[in-house]
Amino acid sequence: MDRSEIKLGILGYGVVGGGLYHILTTNADQVARRTGVPVVVAKVADIDWERPRKIQVPPALRTTDAYEVINDPQIDIVAETIGGTDPALEFVLAAIEAGKSVVTSNKEMMAKHGGEILAAAAAKGVDVQFEGSVCGTIPIIRALKESLEANRISQIIGIVNGTTNYILTKMTQEGREFAQVLQEAQQLGYAEADPSADIEGIDAANKIAILAAIAFGSHVPLELVYREGISKITPQDISYARQMGYVIKLLAIAKQADGKAELRVHPALLPAAHPLASVNGVFNAVFIRGDACDEVMLYGRGAGALPTGSAVAGDVIDCARNILHGTPGRVPCVCEGTLDVVPMDEVATRVYVRMKVADKPGVLGNIATIFGSQGVSIQSVIQESSSGDLAEIVWLMHKGRERNLRLALEAIGHLDIVEEITSVIRVED
Amino acid sequence: MDRSEIKLGILGYGVVGGGLYHILTTNADQVARRTGVPVVVAKVADIDWERPRKIQVPPALRTTDAYEVINDPQIDIVAETIGGTDPALEFVLAAIEAGKSVVTSNKEMMAKHGGEILAAAAAKGVDVQFEGSVCGTIPIIRALKESLEANRISQIIGIVNGTTNYILTKMTQEGREFAQVLQEAQQLGYAEADPSADIEGIDAANKIAILAAIAFGSHVPLELVYREGISKITPQDISYARQMGYVIKLLAIAKQADGKAELRVHPALLPAAHPLASVNGVFNAVFIRGDACDEVMLYGRGAGALPTGSAVAGDVIDCARNILHGTPGRVPCVCEGTLDVVPMDEVATRVYVRMKVADKPGVLGNIATIFGSQGVSIQSVIQESSSGDLAEIVWLMHKGRERNLRLALEAIGHLDIVEEITSVIRVED
């Protein structure tokens, strides 16, 4: 196709849209050279142009009507950087229907409606690319689809949410309480006023659902992702974990073996020597294990105007290359069927358990016996005298089914000698 | 193009060739699904089929004549996994001339002749892909060409040689001497009988030349890479570095600012908190800084049959997609001109200097004065009484030109009070 330029429309001029515009204009010469022709931002739609913004768009490019972008026959590629499903999904489907290639940074939309969107794109023969939807600048989606695709991936473990990683890092480095650090993160703009999507692991669940679909080549209904947040993590647990050679991180985990998959987001003790253990602050990283590549890890900023804009710009260039060569859909979605996910009760995990018990002889033995009766085997125990009549016991268990662990803990919780089961945190190796 | 399969020929059936064959046959169903059609290994050339190998190729596929692969009209893609330039370069140019796309894991050939090879490929309209030539399984080349390509990259710092990283890791963890650990690495097969390509940084120089060309979009003559190996590193230096909060790594560095570049391979003190500092053993990692992506790091195995085979297989699938869509050359080489590399004497670095001096008052001041006279400014000094009449001084300098540092050290080396300048190691932050 003989084209003198590629025209891009942007839907949603917030943080990521601004970053994308900045990159494509500031580095226009480099983008043109690497693409083959200039990539020109032709129109930008946002419902509110009064909001203060760091990066301005010339008034001539502005519109408040997304359909002015979607229906513009001059526009080749639409970048959706609105976020959420409504109205982003409608706009994206309309853009596909109008024959545009689409680039999006929208994790929620892709996690919930990725199958529908990619099917529509395949039917229409256009690209939908979404590198910016998972871990900002980190090229994890392209790595899975275009570099490691000959591997059978057995494991993806990610630190995919910067807000929670920032909070856990601060709690670890400064020995402070969750609520206090959360408040500070909100003041610094690292956490939202309503932080639940981050701290309850909803954001991370969206991301691991997207990565699992690509890595395992199956559709992944979001509700199959088990999810637990970080609000119960305490400095005491972080301190015990450190004594035992672990750090506590919010992990997004996807594993597959023999056609059965595990999908879960939860805080976990991770060995201090694990490559993910030193990923601190707002940084994200994804650790992959495949049958040929063995261990691979990709690390970078998971959010921010320019980092996420960098990923979106990379996708825009890729779509532009496909348009120039007449090959949109060159690397299609190849998902088949739905991932066979093991219910959490049946998953085998290791756990760390902390409890307050009566400080008298025989207590540890009584509790150990109940663990044993459920086949949950103990790896190590630390017992420390606490204040007054209570002692604190920290258990590290060998791998066992969640169901057995749950039944054991229910029985233990009913014992008179047990004051409180303070924490139950999984361990990943 | 309507094709029922893509045919691959392999030149050189050693470690990487074997890994590639294993992956493409073991994961043939997945490769077919992701490519669109099966990718079939049609012929494998090697001059010696008597060598013992872990992974066997059916006798019907074997040939001892590379030109049986190169000239086979049925073969679409040629994977060159011989290594070295002779005869690999001849074969690769012949394969391009025969209209094949080429995939190679050959860093030496790409570093020395990449420009010529890629120009030939462009003229012929075929792909040459070489992900396996740098850092084995790590998708660093695709990341630079197809994910981060909208960035202006200012810095690439890599641990790109597994042998030297293994040796330095062992020296660090066990406090042992270089020669002793090298010998052990040779016994374990991590170092070659002639280890000079690794320990003198030749291998790392090849790799950083390739990465710099892609990141900066310029041709990079290999001789512009300054190079220094690890054989002078001692457990004493590692120990002092640790006291000051650093680890010692062999780094491959490419930096660019205002059109001027630095290209160098040398051991360096790296802050313990740097993402590269915890990359240990035979693992490789590449740390990138770009104007939009900020910091990105990619980590994985830099060598081995399956890890490198994984990278080569990813490239084979990419070439296959291009052949199926009729778009070889979709992501071409865009290098222009030759990188403007600053001579090492003009580069500003920080250094760590260790010396043995007479143990008497005034010595430290004398030496500090000489540093000062060359404008080399001191950040910190540790002086320790050594055995007998000698003391040991360890200096950490602020950033200064290599030329000034060299002149200062020459003058200091001539002082009667200086017994020996034991070590001079650069510091990267």
Descriptive report:
Two copies of one chain form a homodimer. The first copy, chain A, is α/β, with parallel strands linked by helices and 429 residues long. The first copy, chain A, folds into three domains: 6-137 and 305-325, 3-Layer(aba) Sandwich (Rossmann fold); 140-300, Dihydrodipicolinate Reductase, domain 2; 344-427, ACT domain (Alpha-Beta Plaits). Chain A has helices at 15-26, 28-35, 66-70, 88-97, 107-124, 140-146, 162-174, 178-188, 196-199, 202-216, 235-243, 305-325, 363-373, 402-413, and strands at 6-11, 39-45, 62-63, 77-80, 101-104, 128-129, 153-159, 226-227, 246-257, 260-271, 283-290, 294-301, 348-358, 378-385, 390-397, 400-401, 418-427. In chain A, the strands form two sheets. In chain A, strands 7, 8, 9, 10, 11, 12, 13, 14, 15, 16 and 17 form an eleven-stranded mixed β-sheet that branches. Chain A has a six-stranded parallel β-sheet with strand order 3-2-1-4-5-6, with helices on both faces. In chain A, helix 4 packs parallel to helix 5 (107-124). The model of chain A has no long low-confidence stretch (mean pLDDT 96). At the A-B interface, helix 1, helix 2, helix 6, strand 12 and helix 12 of A face helix 1, helix 2, helix 6, strand 12 and helix 12 of B. Strand 12 (294-301) of chain A pairs antiparallel with strand 12 of chain B, so a sheet runs across the interface.
